[in-house]
Design goal:
- The chain is an all-alpha fold.
- It has 24 helices and 2 strands.
- A two-stranded antiparallel sheet has the order 1-2.
- The protein is globular, with a radius of gyration of 25 Å.
Length: about 650
């Protein structure tokens, strides 16, 4: 049998991806609800990498039987991207929040909180579940989801939220189709995150035979095994990693105690991922973390009690993200001008041959999708102009996150609340001026604005880049890839709803079987915010809005200096991520920076290239052995060693 062409998407690759979507959703839900570990807080997702390696192993076995049975790089790429989409959608940062929130106010309403009068009148019934019979089984358990009285109340909200999610992500696909040529072909961004999966997929890669790779793998894999057995048998010794100590415990007096929670961590897989990043971001990531700490200490030293939110870190970060994406779009203005010209004066070669979908269709998709999201929001109770501004800012922030992954490959980008467009609406208008209807819809949209750690948009663009790196050039492939990932979105939403509802009706969300997040935790967070907004009305916050402006201008200034001064060491994306929860691993990136700087300074680019397999081995050692401890935990239903940042 002849080799399968790279451009061909086979039925078996599609079926493998469809099979692995619910498997990965189950894996994620088991750990993010039950075992206080978050596989989707950093990329590449370790659960997906483990499944990819498993497919490679199966392919090697099949090849020994018949060479034609082996999976081609394309047949590995398709399920990999489908699993990435599933993990993003199912995650602690998206669909888990939605499913566990839409029935929460009706079950936890009491005479004391008076939600019946405070919240109920503003909730859209077609997006929530209020049926007490269905909710009793959901929260108390000891029953089955597969009764019509339990299923029926969930059908209408599921259909609407499914449609909303497909449109939300469909617009991202259309935007990425417009960005693809500029960011992949013209600017030739490096996409550091994809180096790991590409090394695994590429049949011509020789890193499996590299001694330094196996040295790194055995080093971290051995440590993970030792620490895993130590968790099972505490009398056994362990090797201290992760959070070693907290610097805050050493500072008890003002103003130094304003430093806050400042852990020193050693995460080998993050050291490895950091080594693949550009050195200026490695430096900027930990440098601006300490700039923010210095601002906190300074505010305590001079007694800024009148500004309790100073230094408005989240607002500064939001301004930085918006500045970065606006500057990037401005630098690519000639590309976007050509798109506009083609829209006004269509030509025979208007279709982007590499995209497989014309720019005209992509722009039309953005317009129709954006109109639907605004219609959806207005139907739910949000004002038309607020809905336009909300989604405009949301997609700007999404593009900024995608750019950060494409250019710099930062593995943790949890733009954690309060940072999204919902918070910007509140500080710029005030809860008093927004009114209860707008605030209620903003709360319902909390599920895709809480944090952007597992944002799906970067995975879409990385899929185009990976196909480019694998030498797949046919336009039909990119067109088919878009439809396959839309199918993956549908199956992922369906799988997440099904798995959560099936599990909660058996065990009970509030029964104590789950940790805090499973036991209605996301509903507490979502409607806790809404209750606070409605009870304690605020005016607009000029200082917070000013902090957004400061972040914007400061980042523009840094980007101009980077453009004019080659030696300029500060990257504005390091400033943008300085307020995120994930940057508490600053010390791991500091180690990466010192090691990479030393190798480049004394060994040059050649030494760096020779060192890359060692650090890939470091990553995979923790990923693979850590995943195996995950599987032991799920099979035996016991806590095991967790190597991640959670």
């Amino acid at each position: 049998m002849k080799d399968i062409p790279l451009e061909r998407i086979t039925i078996r690759s599609l079926l493998i991806g469809l099979f692995l979507i619910p498997v990965n959703c189950f894996w994620i839900l088991q750990f993010e609800f039950n075992r206080w570990s978050f596989p989707t807080y950093l990329v590449p997702y370790y659960n997906v990498i483990f499944c990819l390696l498993l497919l490679v192993g199966i392919s090697m076995l099949m090849k020994t039987i018949s060479p034609s049975w082996a999976l081609s790089p394309t047949e590995l790429l398709i399920p990999y991207l489908m699993m990435c989409m599933a993990s993003s959608i199912c995650s602690h940062n998206m669909m888990e929040i939605l499913v566990t929130s839409i029935g929460h106010p009706f079950w936890f309403s009491t005479p004391e909180n008076d939600w019946q009068n405070l919240i109920f009148p503003h909730l859209p019934t077609w997006l929530t579940v209020s049926d007490k019979i269905a909710l009793r089984g959901y929260y108390e358990g000891e029953t089955s989801f597969y009764h019509w009285s339990h299923i029926m109340p969930w059908i209408e909200p599921f259909i609407w939220w499914l449609l909303f999610t497909i449109v939300l992500l469909g617009i991202m696909f259309c935007i990425n189709l417009l960005l693809r040529r500029q960011w992949i072909e013209k600017e030739k961004l490096t996409y550091p995150i994809i180096q790991l999966p590409l090394s695994i997929m590429n049949s011509k890669s020789d890193f499996w035979r590299n001694r330094s790779f196996w040295l790194g793998f055995l080093l971290t894999g051995g440590v993970t095994i030792i620490n895993g057995f130590s968790v099972l048998q505490p009398v056994l010794p362990s090797i201290p990693l992760k959070r070693i100590l907290n610097l805050h415990s050493f500072f008890n007096d003002r103003p130094w105690n304003a430093i806050g929670w400042t852990p020193i961590t050693v995460h080998p897989h993050l050291i490895g991922l950091g080594f693949l990043m550009p050195i200026e971001l490695l430096f900027s990531s930990w440098f601006f973390y300490w700039v923010l700490k210095s601002q906190r200490i300074f505010s305590s030293a001079i007694g800024l009690k009148g500004l309790p939110k100073f230094p408005y870190a989240s607002e500064q970060s939001f301004g930085a993200y918006i500045a970065i994406i606006i500057a990037v779009l401005w630098w690519g203005k000639h590309h976007f001008q050509q798109i506009v010209i083609n829209l006004i004066r269509p030509s025979k070669n208007q279709t982007d041959k590499a995209n497989g979908i014309s720019n005209r269709v992509a722009v039309f998709g953005i317009f129709i999708g954006f109109s639907f999201l605004c219609f959806f929001s207005v139907k739910a109770g949000m004002g038309i102009w607020l809905s336009v501004a909300f989604f405009f800012l949301y997609y700007l922030l999404s593009m900024a996150i995608t750019r950060m992954r494409a250019e710099l490959g930062f593995p943790i980008h949890d733009a954690h609340y309060p940072l999204g467009p919902d918070h910007i609406a509140i500080i710029s208008q005030g809860t008093k001026n927004l009114g209860p209807k707008n605030l209620t819809v903003l709360a319902l949209y909390h599920w895709f604005n809480r944090t952007y750690a597992s944002h799906p948009m970067p995975h879409q663009l990385e899929g185009f880049k990976m196909s480019n790196q694998l030498g797949i050039s046919k336009p039909s492939f990119n067109r088919n890839l878009v439809w396959i990932l839309i199918l993956a979105t549908f199956v992922s939403v369906l799988s997440t709803f099904w798995l959560i509802l099936d599990s909660f009706y058996r065990h009970g969300s509030s029964s104590g079987f789950y940790n805090w997040w499973g036991a209605g935790g996301f509903g507490r967070e979502t409607f806790g915010w809404l209750e606070s907004w409605l009870l304690y009305q605020t005016e607009w916050d000029p200082f917070a809005v000013g902090a957004v402006g400061v972040g914007f201008l400061f980042s523009i200034g840094m980007m101009l200096l980077r453009f004019r001064l080659i030696w300029w060491p500060f990257h504005p994306l390091g400033y943008a991520i300085s307020s995120s929860w994930g940057i508490h691993v600053w010390s791991s990136f500091l180690i990466s920076w010192v090691v990479k700087l030393t190798i480049l300074r004394y060994g040059g680019l050649r030494a760096y290239r020779h060192a890359v397999p060692f650090f890939i081995g470091i990553i995979l050692g923790e990923y693979i052995l850590g995943s195996m401890w995950n599987i032991v935990s799920m099979v035996l239903n016991i806590p095991t060693y967790q190597f991640t940042v959670g």
